[in-house]
Design a protein that fits this description.
It is a single chain. The chain is 45% helix and 13% strand. The protein is α/β, with parallel strands linked by helices. The protein has an eight-stranded parallel β-sheet with strand order 1-10-9-8-5-4-3-2, sandwiched between helices. The protein is globular. The relative contact order is 0.15. Bound molecules: 3-hydroxy-3-methylglutaryl-coenzyme A (HMG) and magnesium ion (MG).
Length: 298
């Protein structure tokens, strides 16, 4: 049986865009429930500026209250050295930097050019190397930008390659606004895989047009074995208006399970978690698989 690594991004990507500010203890409970469901890599929060993303302002508290389980990873986003230092002081052992393949989105999301973002990351990589902390990298707007439209795969490949050369063990390609389809994802993967080893590429598909799971399948066929997803299909970026959640973790697990691919996740427990978090946020469960399994169980 082959296997796929899932990076659950619900507590970070999922909650950063919600109007409801979830209390810290509920965030910690969400992370615990995800771990109970079998998720092994759970992006817990982001050490970004609270002025920019108030939903993540309690980042240090989340990390301090978390009861870490052996063998599990709880990566966090760190946009700069300040974020990195606070994250590590709060107990983070895995971090992720994030930039963009589009200049306009970089400016709106992180208030810098792409070049400047790499200058900010340089001390993060240096400190992480010294601390023995693995750094993941994200490239946003891997298919298109909310301000510039289509983004050429070569531009994404260039940024992805720079992240890996700078020290990222893996680079996650973000279809931030969820407009990709297999017809655009395949050329993207071809361009990136020409400059970054395939085993270091992850797919991060938002589901705005309902194409997330089709894109996962196309990327799997291409050879990608790491996918980011969000319980209940939560998610979105506050600086990408109109973009909806990540591909739902339960949709991903359902797809892979039926192909005999091991994810280590208990689908029933995951759906319970998706129902729970949707209730906490006062919204209906977004994922189709979640709703179907909920109906079947009723
Ligand atoms: P800036 O305003 O240019 O930063 O923001 P600055 O260095 O000029 O500092 C301004 C103030 O912010 C200062 O405070 C700093 O101390 C403070 P003051 O002295 O004025 O009181 N500050 C911080 N505070 C806490 N933590 C920090 C930090 N850094 C500075 N780390 C910055 C630059 C990058 C910080 C800002 O633009 C920011 O926080 N942006 C984050 C936006 C964000 O989180 N977006 C969502 C995540 S990315 C995403 O969702 C895409 C992804 O899912 C993949 C995909 O889907 O494509 C990953
Ligand atoms: Mg995202």
């Amino acid at each position: 049986m082959s296997s796929v690594r899932i990076v659950e991004v619900g507590p970070r990507d999922g909650l950063q865009n919600e109007a409801v500010l979830l209390p810290t203890q509920k965030k910690v409970e969400l992370i615990d429930r995800l771990a109970d469901a079998g998720l092994r890599e759970i992006e817990a929060t982001s050490f970004v500026s609270p002025q920019w993303v108030p939903q993540m302002a309690d980042h240090a508290d989340v990390m301090r209250r978390l009861v870490r389980r052996p063998g599990l990873r709880y990566p966090v986003l760190t946009p700069n050295l300040r974020g990195y230092q606070t994250a590590v002081a709060s107990g983070a052992a895995h971090v992720a930097v994030f930039t963009s393949a589009s200049e306009s989105f970089a400016r709106k999301n992180i208030n810098s050019s792409i070049e400047e973002s790499f200058a900010r990351f340089a001390p993060v990589f240096e400190a992480a190397r010294a601390d023995g902390i693995p750094v993941r990298g994200y490239v946003s707007c891997a298919i298109a930008c909310p301000y510039e439209g289509r983004v050429a795969p070569e531009r994404v490949a260039h940024v992805a390659r720079r992240l890996v050369e700078a020290g990222c063990y893996e680079v996650s390609l973000g279809d931030t606004i969820g407009v990709g389809t297999p017809a655009t994802v395949m050329p993207l993967l071809e361009a990136v895989a020409a400059v970054v080893p395939l085993e270091r590429i992850a797919g991060h598909f938002h589901d705005t047009y309902g194409m997330g799971i089709a894109n996962v399948h196309a990327a799997y066929e291409f050879g990608v074995r790491v996918f980011d997803s969000s319980v209940g299909g939560l998610g979105g970026c506050p600086y990408a208006k109109g973009a909806t959640g990540n591909v739902a973790t339960e949709d991903l697990v359902y797809l892979l399970k039926d192909r005999g691919i091991d994810t280590g996740v208990d689908l029933d427990r995951l759906v319970d978690c998706a129902v729970w978090i949707s209730q906490q946020l006062g919204r209906p469960l977004a994922s189709r698989v979640g709703r179907a399994l909920q109906c079947a169980a009723a």
